[in-house]
Amino acid sequence: MTTIKVGIIGCGNISSIYMENIPKFTHLELVACADLDLSRAQARAEQYNIAKAYSVEQLLADTDIEIVINLTIPAAHASVCLQALEAGKHVYVEKPLAVTREEGRRILDFARSKGLLVGSAPDTFLGGGIQTCLKLINDGWIGTPVAATAFMMSRGHEHWHPDPEFYYQQGGGPMFDMGPYYLTALVALLGPIRRVTGSAGISYPERTITSAKKYGQTIQVETPTHIAGVLDFHSGAIATLVTSFDIIGGTELPHIEIYGSQGSLRVPDPNGFGGPVYFRRAGTDWEPVPISHQYTDNSRGLGVAAMAQAIIAGEMDLHRANGQLAYHVLEAMHGFHDASASGVHYQMESSCDRPLPLSPYFKFE
Domain 4-120 carries which CATH code? Predict the structure, then answer.
């Protein structure tokens, strides 16, 4: 069996789930990890039985490694992706693809010139929950999708995160933090976006940290913390998306609902891989639908597995969490902010294909 050797750059908190999951895919071999802090890479290598702990330069120079998983902070996503591509390696990056549209385009253009693949989180849409919803839509359970709503409502990260400052600086905020999960799921379910509009504001210009590490310190907010957007899809469906760090009392709003000509579908949290999934028709109550697909636990790494499968098979439509999808989502996130600032709709310049659905019970082996 063909296997592809993988290296991880960035050994922070999120690296642990990748290091736990990548070895579960028999066509992937995690051979090295790297970090600016070599001691952190060494600790992760020992913890997860990874053969090599490298500096970033050493990992990029290792000719055995074919895919680099970029788990650095968002501000470094573009530079590390470009370095990996320059070294002749395919790259898969945590969300978002980049901070700016210009950086995102540079990554895709450079990869194309080198004949290499770019992939990007989130890959949660490949989990059993959203794949079940996709099958229900494709099988006609709700008829023709005509509308959707999506809500990511929270009180902000200063209440629990040890270092929450980034989330209130440019490139942060609820849209860039959590929007990729919601937008990627909506594109997977409804197809590419034609235009967006929105209103964005800063409800509280100053935040006080109440998590233990920096308790009592204040944050000056530089980016919108409540964004209410509308999306028009090429399919004709219209969706509402609200992302917020300003909801003090909590809500009972659903994560995502899709409304069709014959029924409605309640989609599970797009930040997870599992259910529950609910369906209803006119005059009935919501009813649970059994999950029809695999991968309902925390399966981060599915996008890398699909990317490697595409490389091995030479079939690019198998590369589902791809750079074109990630860039389309990145553009839409900026589009909401641009529309709010300009007072007019933002017309999307990019497009993408709906990712190829997984078959029920399919597993990457």
Answer: 3.40.50.720
